[in-house]
């Protein structure tokens, strides 16, 4: 199933015959389901792939706070505001777990953040879209966190121990996030005609970007085959995207909303929904930095980093002073 799909992908994987002894032993451990830990020997390319994926994931959590942060002061009730605040704080926590997991691979947080701030490192395309109405808070929780869970549940079983363990807690928190998003959508869908129209408009704008979160199609995915061999990826981009569609369409129907895809239909034979073509030109454009909010998001992160310099310096000064006092004692 998955192996067949990734064969059409762009990356090639090494057979055991091509591998040196230590690499073959490493692959055998992975194939046997043994978790790789920070101090274990690992091929440089495995380390590099994990640093790439985990740091991109961390950046996504941190940048992902911004679209929702836009609505904290305008939440309709105190209760909604407290829930939204808690969710956004959770995302910061996820970023911290993930930066810590990346650091176990020998890269510093400063290096990772410098790559984000220079525009070299990617973060999820989804966070480059604007949040225009309160209904967007519902759509993000429901669709974006919903998609994140589908992608991340398998990561709890991935081969790298620190990443897999971080994902367990992240997934628990993400399910609260998805639930609160659906609850907002439910309240709007059952509200006035104007509120229902607002919910529909949010679904219209977030549906396709949410499908893009899963990455390029299997035929275009450059990293999939190698990541599958290393059990970093347990399911392909297209498999997880299909899972999202199958799970979400009935939820939209329950809300009385229409998924903005004229080609969407249920195939009773396969038991899956068939859906229309994704606009990959839009996806690549966002990845290149030309999405509606790319520049604004990056500017905000860089500004936050610069304005926080005094605080980081104070922490280091305090730590140095503390260490000096300890030495004297
Ligand atoms: N956006 O060969 P593949 C969240 C890049 S967390 C931007 O298929 P791979 C929680 C990809 O990096 C959301 N770039 O790559 C939350 C690669 O470029 P590279 C983040 C993308 O790594 C909710 C190139 O395209 N989740 O939402 C995207 O095997 C609400 C070719 O792609 C994760 O990061 C994209 N959507 O598969 C927070 C999960 N898709 O690096 C706040 C972990 C692909 O070679 C509020 N990551 N690219 O230059 C993964 O599972 C994988 O990295 C994929 C991509 C599936 C994202």
Automatic annotation (TrEMBL):
Xref: InterPro entries: Aromatic_CoA_ox/epox (IPR052703), Ferritin-like (IPR012347), Ferritin-like_SF (IPR009078), PaaA (IPR011881), PaaA_PaaC (IPR007814)
Gene Ontology molecular function, alphabetical: phenylacetyl-CoA 1,2-epoxidase activity
Keyword presence, Chaperone: no
Keywords, in A-Z order: Oxidoreductase
Keyword Oxidoreductase: yes
Pfam families: PaaA_PaaC (PF05138)
A biological process term (GO) from this entry: phenylacetate catabolic process
GO CC annotation: cytosol
EC class of the enzyme, as a word: oxidoreductase
EC nos: 1.14.13.149
Protein name: 1,2-phenylacetyl-CoA epoxidase, subunit A
The organism of origin for this protein: Duganella phyllosphaerae
Gene behind the chain: paaA
């Amino acid at each position: 199933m998955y192996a067949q799909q990734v064969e059409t992908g762009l990356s090639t994987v090494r057979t055991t015959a091509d591998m040196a002894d230590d690499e073959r032993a490493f692959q055998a451990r992975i194939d046997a389901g043994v978790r790789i830990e920070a101090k274990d020997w690992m091929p440089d390319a495995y380390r590099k792939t994990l640093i790439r994926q985990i740091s991109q994931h961390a950046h996504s959590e941190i940048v992902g706070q911004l679209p929702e942060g836009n609505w904290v002061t305008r939440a309709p009730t105190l209760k909604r505001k407290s829930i939204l605040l808690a969710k956004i704080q959770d995302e910061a926590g996820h970023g911290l777990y993930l930066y810590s997991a990346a650091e176990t691979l020998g890269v510093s947080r400063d290096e990772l953040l410098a790559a984000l701030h220079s525009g070299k490192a990617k973060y999820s395309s989804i966070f480059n879209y604007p949040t225009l109405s309160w209904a967007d808070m519902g759509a993000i929780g429901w669709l974006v966190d919903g998609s994140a869970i589908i992608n991340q549940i398998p990561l709890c079983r991935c081969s790298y121990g620190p990443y897999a363990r971080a994902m367990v807690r992240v997934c628990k928190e993400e399910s609260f996030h998805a639930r609160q998003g659906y609850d907002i959508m439910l309240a709007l869908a059952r509200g006035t005609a104007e509120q229902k129209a607002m919910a529909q408009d949010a679904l219209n704008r977030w549906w396709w970007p949410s499908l893009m979160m899963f990455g390029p199609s299997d035929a275009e995915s450059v990293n999939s085959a190698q990541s599958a061999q290393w059990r970093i990826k347990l399911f392909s981009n297209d498999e997880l995207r299909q899972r999202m569609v199958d799970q979400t369409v009935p939820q939209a129907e329950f809300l009385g909303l229409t998924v903005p895809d004229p080609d969407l239909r249920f195939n009773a034979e396969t038991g899956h929904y068939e859906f229309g073509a994704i606009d990959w030109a839009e996806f690549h454009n966002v990845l290149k930095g030309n999405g509606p909010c790319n520049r604004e998001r990056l500017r905000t992160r860089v500004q936050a980093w610069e304005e926080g310099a005094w605080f980081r310096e104070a922490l280091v000064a305090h730590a140095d002073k503390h260490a000096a006092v300890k030495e004297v004692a």
